[in-house]
């Protein structure tokens, strides 16, 4: 998928999420880091606290032959707002395990994170999402997202917070 297509898709998703007004939501995928194995990743950072996100299978949302999995952490609060979102789509020639690291904010200072939601479309329900740095109530959150045995994988990450 070209960068322009990704930007247009993200803008469209932003409009849908925000009820039609895209506002000034930043769409960026430069903070994605591929993590081959969460256990090797954790071993590289002694003392790392890994917190698993809640997982829910979303029935009837994905195209035929695919599953939609929702991961979330935290809770929406009255004064929070959508502060950032990212999205990407991957296609592979054969089924494989997919792992990536998503970080908010990409650089600089971010809003205090109140809620994070990841919507993933993949060939199976198998996968997990872990917070590996920062978290709810902090101005940074870094998540390792994993999907197992999939040829098609797409995600949308929504970050809500208080500026």
Automatic annotation (TrEMBL):
Domain of life: Eukaryota
Pfam families per the UniProt record, alphabetical: MBF2 (PF15868)
UniProtKB keywords: Signal
Signal peptide as annotated in the record: 1-22
Name of the protein in question: GD15631
């Amino acid at each position: 998928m070209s960068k322009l297509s990704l930007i247009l898709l993200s803008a469209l998703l932003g409009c849908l999420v925000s009820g039609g007004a895209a506002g000034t939501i930043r769409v960026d995928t430069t903070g994605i880091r591929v993590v081959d194995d969460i256990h090797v990743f954790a071993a590289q950072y002694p003392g790392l606290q890994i917190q698993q996100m809640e997982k829910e299978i979303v029935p009837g949302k994905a195209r035929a032959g695919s599953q939609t999995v929702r991961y979330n952490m935290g809770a929406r609060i009255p004064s929070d707002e959508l502060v950032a979102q990212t999205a990407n789509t991957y296609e592979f020639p054969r089924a494989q395990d997919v792992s990536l690291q998503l970080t908010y904010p990409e650089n600089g200072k971010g809003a205090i994170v109140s809620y994070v939601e990841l919507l993933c479309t993949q060939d199976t329900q198998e996968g997990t999402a872990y917070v590996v740095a920062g978290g709810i109530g902090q101005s940074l959150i870094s998540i390792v997202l994993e999907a197992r045995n999939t040829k098609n994988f797409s995600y949308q990450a929504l970050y809500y917070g208080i500026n």
